[in-house]
Amino acid sequence: MDAEIAGADGAREREFEIEFRLLIDAIYHMYHYDFRGYAPASLRRRLKAGLGKFNCDTLSQLQDRVLREPQVFASLLDYLTVQVSEMFRDPTYFRALREKVVPLLRTYPSLKIWVAGCSTGEEAYSIAILLQEEGLLARALIYATDINPHTLLKAETGVYDAVRIPGFTVNHRESGARTSLSDYYTAAYGRAVFNKSLRDHIVFSDHSLATDSVFAEVQLVSCRNVLIYFNRDLQNRALGLFRDSLCRQGFLGLGSKETLRFSSHEHEFDPFVPKERIYQKSKER
Amino acid sequence: MNVPRLHGRIDAVVIGASAGGVEALSVVLPVLPAETPVAVMIVVHLPRDRPSLLVDIFSRKCAMTVREAEDKEPVEAGTVYFAPSNYHLLVDPGPQLALSVDDLVHHSRPSIDVLFESAAHVYRDRLLGVILTGANEDGAEGLAMVHDTGGITVVQEPRTAHSSQMVVAARSLRKPDYVMTLEEIADMLAHLRS
Question: Is the pTM of this model over 0.95?
Answer without folding.
Answer: no
